[in-house]
Structure prediction request, 482 residues.
Amino acid sequence: MKRRINALLACLLTIMLIAGCSGVNSDASGQSTNSKKLVLGTSADYPPYEFHKKINGTDEIVGFDIEIAKELAKDMGAELVIEDMKFDSLLLALNSGKIDIAMAAMNPTEERKKNVDFSSIYYTSDQAVLVRAEDKDKYKTMDDLIGKSIGAQKSTIYEDIARAIPNAKVDALSKMSDILLSLESKRVDALIVELPVAESYEKNRSTLAIADARPKSEDNGYAVAVKKGREDLVSQMNKTIDRLMSEDKVKKYVTDATKLAEEGDSNIWTILMQYKSTFLNGVWWTLLLSLVTVVFGFILGVILVLMRRSRIKPFKWLAIAYIEFLRGTPLMVQLFIIYFGLPSIGIEFPKFIAGAIALSLNSAAYLAEIFRAGIESVDKGQLEAARSLGMGQSMAMRYIILPQALKQVLPAIGNEFVVIIKESSIVSLIGITDIMFQEEVVRGSTYAGLPPLIIAAVLYFILTFTCSKLLGVAERRLKASD
Prediction:
């Protein structure tokens, strides 16, 4: 049994290393270009700027921002590597060295210039108000939006425009696909978005239309963001942008990307068949991440509960502090600290390993308390009897107490494992391609709102239901001796 456990741990460590290496990107901005890689961070849910598209059966990130980025990389003699993440994580990833440049229809506002540098403007556009088709005639001017519920992408100038409307109730979300779902489900009355984006959605969704009202903003140009102090990179990019503007290639990229962003099918069965490989890839990463989390969370949880019950006070205090802190802070904050925060002190993990560490550390705190309840449920007389037979504290705990405690708390452990499968969806925030990440990809590719969410919900249910049944079998076998 001991050899089997060691073999399992070795296998899991190997899988983590392989999975981590598959998602490795450059460490720091200077390092990536020196190694002939240019790492682009983007939020690929914004057609025609950047979006996912099935091309020859393969999911690709396309759009005119991507075409410009390819030219930037070509002129630098570097390979373009694309990292897809939420828009409001881009500058954080940029400053932590996870990416070299950020392109996602980003305005070089004065607030952003305090934290990052920008290239010259490569495209300018107007803003638009996107509404449900039946409400198109309700909004002739911006005054018609006073007091209405308005959606906008978080951390953009569109959110600022929306908040400037008197008495408006602003709903700001990170993903464009989520904002559109809010509009279609009547959570908001209108969206303030980029005009080309609004035109793309109006063309491909019969339920949506562009209103006559037109927002006004001085910040309507878009540039490439880089980490502060990278004047050399900015200079290189400006040369490429000047060349593309003089050759009139940007307009061509816009036209081509607009044509590429054609209508998807909103039928749930068609979406499932067309994107089954995408969803299966998400299931694979969700299962792998959950398995790694369960094993290492379990081991760390046992160590923590033994430390908490130790007579050595520093061990006990450390375990208590760990458990209280991890249970008292949000998992998302822990994930961001590990993935985005630690690189600032020279500690960097690939995205998969960062996600596995965050989930394992968080799960261990809860499992430790579950184990503690199980240990305390075992009659104290059994420990005394074991000691009277000559067993040491550790031997009695290993052979007498822990097996019974595990049997007592198995249902609670099973519930925690089910929770881990569902909570693993949070790793989509850092770009791990789990089920939720792939659901957002499909939603952005097909312009469909609800069907991809239903498919994701069914997949999570299948995983959690199967896990519950397997744990039920294990529980019945353990109770056979009763």
Notes: Confidence is low (pLDDT under 50) at residues 22-34.
